[in-house]
Design brief:
Elements (H helix, E strand, L loop, with lengths): L8 E4 L14 H11 L5 E4 L4 E5 L2 E5 L4 E4 L6 E3 L7 H8 L1
Length: 95
Amino acid sequence: MLTNLVPFQINPHYTNAAIPNHNGETREQRLEEFLVLNPDIYVVGLPEGTMLKIEDSSIRLIGNKTIYLFKFGEEKQEYYPNDNLDFLLEKVSSA
């Protein structure tokens, strides 16, 4: 089993949609609960049809949707396909 391939968590199939007739938590609420227990971790909400491509020390978003970055104590951030995401790879080395 491979672990720690990237210094952040990936939440695949992320959606911020409210599901009709679903009385449970939203995906965002679940991620916020996870971050309470794991405050030093970034979580990338990766929607369907997107991927992250890593080459050397560079990371970029492939696809035409935005991704969401979650961090404990911070507002959810939205990133677009042409945004620089290289900082995600640097976080663990400074933590």
